[in-house]
Amino acid sequence: MNYWHKPMKTGPRIITVANQKGGVGKTTTAINLATALAAIGERVLIVDLDPQGNASTGLGIDRKDRTVSSYDVLTGELELEAAAVPTAVPGLSIVPSTLDLLGIEMEIASAPDRVLRLRNALRAAAERSAPFGYVLIDCPPSLNLLTLNSMAAAIRFWSRCNASFSRSKVSASCSKLSSRCGARSTRISPSRALC
Ligand SMILES: Nc1ncnc2c1ncn2[C@@H]1O[C@H](COP(=O)(O)OP(=O)(O)OP(=O)(O)O)[C@@H](O)[C@H]1O
Ligand SMILES: [Mg+2]
Fold it and tell me: In angstroms, what is the span from residue 138 Cα to ligand 2's centroid?
């Protein structure tokens, strides 16, 4: 399947924070960057694509209050703006995640647009002039269908690495990961930048 697509001419800057390894700071990066952008006056949306829901929890959205979610967006039940809830940070909204996301792989596995669900939702929102200057996507620690959706949607792919090993090991593991993610990412959209 050819995932190539033209970049959006208008609409938000979309950045995905991804790494198949857990606990390397993806969620922390997404929340901090989003908060910093909101603090300088940008309208920012975080899309929580991790079933763990740590970005949602970190931004104060309790599990019991999550009546809308990224699952609803990926299944087409809700438009992106309808699934976005405001946070305590002025200018920062989040599409929360719920445990429903755990089953999404099986639910949309045979759909031809399974990798493009998030990209299409973001494009449709941009066409409706949704008021977001930046969209940050927090991914699960896996290169699964959720992460691939984020890669297909994003203009920038930010791979977080943990610097707790020796410098040479960090460098080797980062470059291996970058090439693996980059190869997939490039197949999905050749114009994407890897940070
Ligand atoms: N730059 C940093 N320096 C030190 N500790 C950090 C840094 N960034 C994040 N942490 C800590 O590392 C832990 C894991 O961070 P975080 O939850 O953001 O990782 P993650 O990659 O999103 O994890 P997961 O893959 O489980 O979603 C947290 O305790 C967080 O406070
Ligand atoms: Mg996380």
Answer: 7
